[in-house]
Amino acid sequence: xxxxxxxxxxxxxxxxxxxxxxxxxxxxxxxxxxxxxxxxxxxxxxxxxxxxxxxxxxxxxxxxxxxxxx
Length: 70
Hints:
Blueprint: E1 3-9, H1 13-20, H2 23-29, E2 33-39, E3 52-53, E4 63-64
Parallel strand pairs: 1-2
Antiparallel strand pairs: 3-4
C-alpha cells in the first residue's frame, strides 16, 4: 500500500520538477508513494478564480482569501 501525498498549491506544475529529481521521485517510481498536486484555484467560487487578497490595513504581502459564507 502506497503512502498518499496530496499537495494543495497555487502552482501544481512546479511540484513535478523537484519531486521527480529526488529520493521521493524514486519512491514514486517504485510505487511506494502516490503523489498528486491540486490547484487551489479549482475550488475558488470567484468568477476569476481569485484566491488571494491584500492584508487588512495595507502593507506588504498577500493573504489567502477565506471562503465567504453562503
